[in-house]
Amino acid sequence: MPDEDARNNHRYHPFYCEENIYYLCSDLIGSHHRLQALFISNARRACLFHNQKATPPGRPTVWDYHVVLLDGPSNDVPRYRIRDFDTRLSFGIDAEEYLQKTFDRPGSDRFRPRFRLVSAREFLATFSTDRRHMRKDPENQASPWLQPPPPWDPPRGSNAASEHELPAYISMEPEGPGVLVDLEELLEMIR
Q1: Checking phi first, is residue 15 left (phi over 0); if not, alpha (psi -120 to 50) or beta?
Q2: 95 pLDDT above the threshold of 70
Q3: Considering all CA atoms of the chain, what is the largest pairwise distance in Å, rounded to the nearest integer?
């Protein structure tokens, strides 16, 4: 199946990347692929991304965080690939190409990304969100949405410690799920 057809065969809702990747992991977990959720942010919560659909072609986007899927390597996926629903690049692009076309190197330290890699199994078991971060007032469940929510129920892993574990995943402090790496370490890992 061509990569663009694959993009259209999975749940997607704009501005809810963590949920899109959660359900993509759920769809693909039975495959022979080695899957990892890749949370991208930094201490300032301001990462510069190129080739994102949120802005016109040729203009960068600054996300507070973003989540994509790192896939491979395995017998049927010989190299690492990235699946990003929000990129203008292909869905299932070679991971090194994605990183080179998405992030500035060396780039400004202010916008440099860090990455939290979490195995798909751990992510599916321990992640949860009640979507409070998408409310104008996150502490008020009656507060208006910043962006309309998806039509499905928010994800809640069977071993999630609370109804909103998203902050632990987007934190770029050492504590938390998975492992933290910088851009150079991630590039080294996937080569």
Answers
A1: left
A2: yes
A3: 48
Q: Would you call 36 exposed, middle or buried from its count of C-beta atoms within 10 A (0-12, 13-18, 19+)?
A: buried
- DSSP conformation letters of 1-49: --HHHHHHTS---TT-HHHHHHHHHHHHTTSS--EEEEEEE-TTS-EEE
- Residue 134, classified by CB atoms within 10 Å of its CB into exposed (0-12), middle (13-18) or buried (19+), is middle
Token pair of 72, please?
């491979």
DSSP assignment string, 116-150 = EEEEHHHHHHH-B--SGGGBSSTT-TTSPBSSPPP
Mean pLDDT of the chain: 92
pLDDT at residue 32 tops 70? no
> Do 22 and 166 touch, CB atoms closer than 8 A?
no
All structural domains of the chain, each given as residue ranges with its CATH number in brackets, are 3-190 (3.10.620.10)
Question: Active-site residue numbers?
Answer: 17, 66, 84
Under 8 Å between Cβ of 39 and 170? yes
Residues 6+ apart with CB under 8 A from 145: 134, 135, 136
Q: Name the band, by pLDDT with cuts 50, 70 and 90, for residue 106.
A: low
